[in-house]
Amino acid sequence: MKFEIDVSGDDLFTNPKYTICIASKDKIDGKSIIRGYRIDEEIKETLIEKWKNNKYRYRYTESERTRASFKVRIYCIIIYYLFKSLEIKEKISMTICRDFYGRESTIKQNLKFLLESEGGMEIGVPLFQRLPPSSLAHWYANMMANDSENHLDTYVNITLKDIEKFLKKRKKVTSMIR
Questions:
Q1: What is the pLDDT of residues 155-178, one digit of tens each?
Q2: Which residues, listed in sequence order, are joined to residue 3 by a DSSP beta bridge?
Q3: N or C: which end of the chain has fewer CB atoms below 10 A?
Q4: How far apart are the C-alpha atoms of 133 and 175, rounded to whole Å?
């Protein structure tokens, strides 16, 4: 199945309507496949607060480089849950909008780990390009961002606990040598 992935909003940390959408022209039961998530302000504030207090394995600094790594990880975690909600058994190909310039390799690695290793899905190599305004993912991401009443049936419920599952610090493994 072929999917497009897009966001609406320029920055996860500053845009209150930041929305991530996956969409496919392929159909299930005669309907196009569309799933999205608009990050809740309370979840966003908690993530940032805990990150600043070094509760996650991504260390907090003021540098844009570390901020971008943290944002990309959250972006990929949300994509994982959007795909997980579909329970797809066939290979997934993705065209991802270039919203994180210079982070393509990190996104590929994150998606490979999350979707294949954790989700048991099979993915192809993602293609990164600017999506046209006519793209389903682009169109629905914008529509969901402006849907203040949550009228669309395309939303996936993703909790703070769901997101944190993939942000927690790894436990140190110590060997017991005698």
A1: 999 999 999 999 986 555 455 554
A2: 94
A3: C
A4: 54
Instruction: Tell me which architecture the domain covering 2-164 has in CATH.
Output: 2-Layer Sandwich (3.30)
Tell me how far apart the alpha carbons of residues 99 and 9 are, in angstroms, rounded to a whole number: 10
The domains of the chain are located at: 2-164
173 CB-contact burial (10 Å; exposed 0-12 / middle 13-18 / buried 19+): exposed
| pLDDT tens figures, 94-141 | 999 988 888 999 999 999 999 999 999 999 999 999 999 899 999 999
pTM (two decimals): 0.90
Phi-psi region at 94: left, alpha or beta (left = phi > 0; alpha = psi -120 to 50): beta
Three-class secondary structure of residue 38 per DSSP: strand
